[in-house]
Specification:
Blueprint: H1 3-33, H2 47-56, H3 62-70, E1 82-84, E2 97-99, E3 108-110, E4 120-122, H4 123-138, E5 144-147, H5 152-166, H6 168-171, E6 188-192, H7 205-213, E7 219-221, H8 228-231, E8 239-242, H9 245-253, H10 258-266
Parallel strand pairs: 1-2
Antiparallel strand pairs: 3-4, 5-6, 6-8, 7-8
């Protein structure tokens, strides 16, 4: 082979290697420019929102950035809202996801034990609560459902009274606006121990038992003290939500809010 041909082949090899390295570098840069896409719940249409949110919260992990933007937390509460139209035991109703005025829970039944008069719940939620309350009673404890399913109009009146008394900003920290209340789903329960006012439930033996056992019956503490910036509500040790044993156990073991679980595994 002639010397000139050898040199040409060597040059072609060098140029080819350079191009490969350059393309790999481009791919690497591209990936580094978009570190959010590695998560299965990444939404390409939200890329700019992810970047902007990270500028505001640079200490958050990429995973938390993606999840929180998916939760809509880069928007003010009660903005960019979405209507939930079908009942589902794992439905999410919060300050971004609402139920229409005429939404009906198809599985409502009366809670005829361990409850104040007139309480109603989704049937599976009611059955799980009764079982939990009976087991608690066997341990010398008292659980009572004091607020369960609420209609749109009931919540509208309740919220209006709170807003008039405390002002809208304060009321929004502990009461849902009509349509945005989880109680409208029939899956949520406020609980006391009969002897203490419900706002003191955290100081009871019943609360301690619930923290250790509620997940075994499918319930989660819906508004934990360390998730207020996600849920939008103050700590409510009396408010529980039925999600089923498997989901409740996962949420407890991983110290998640329902929003965090929902947007990682259920949102599509």
């Amino acid at each position: 082979m002639k010397k000139g041909m050898i040199i040409l082949i060597i040059l072609i090899i060098i140029v080819s290697c350079f191009c490969i390295l350059k393309n790999n570098k481009k791919e690497k840069v591209k990936k580094e420019d978009n570190p959010y896409q590695e998560f299965k719940f990444y939404k390409k249409d939200y890329l700019e929102r992810y970047k902007n949110y990270q500028l505001d919260y640079p200490s958050l992990s990429y995973k938390d950035i993606v999840l929180r933007v998916n939760m809509n937390l880069d928007n003010s509460f009660y903005t960019n809202t979405k209507e939930v139209t079908e009942f589902n035991p794992l439905m999410l109703v919060n300050k971004y996801n609402y139920l229409g005025k005429d939404f009906q829970v198809p599985t409502l039944v009366k809670v005829d034990e361990f409850a104040k008069e007139g309480m109603m719940l989704d049937k599976d939620t009611k059955d799980a609560f009764i079982k939990m309350a009976r087991d608690a009673k066997d341990n010398g404890l008292n659980l009572r459902a004091i607020s369960t399913y609420r209609t749109y109009d009931y919540q509208a009146n309740l919220y209006s009274n709170y807003a008039k008394t405390d002002g809208v900003n304060n009321a929004d920290t502990y009461s849902a606006r009509p349509g945005f209340s989880e109680h409208h789903t029939g899956l949520a329960i406020d609980i006391d121990n009969i002897t203490k006012v419900y706002t003191d439930f955290k100081d009871t033996k019943e609360f301690k038992w619930m923290m250790e056992n509620a997940h075994k019956y499918g319930f989660i503490l819906r508004y934990p003290s360390d998730k207020e910036n996600i849920t939008g509500y103050i700590y409510e040790p009396w408010h529980y939500r039925y999600v089923g044993v498997k989901v409740a156990t996962y949420i407890k073991e991983h110290n998640l809010s329902f929003e965090e679980y929902y947007y990682e595994f259920l949102d599509n």
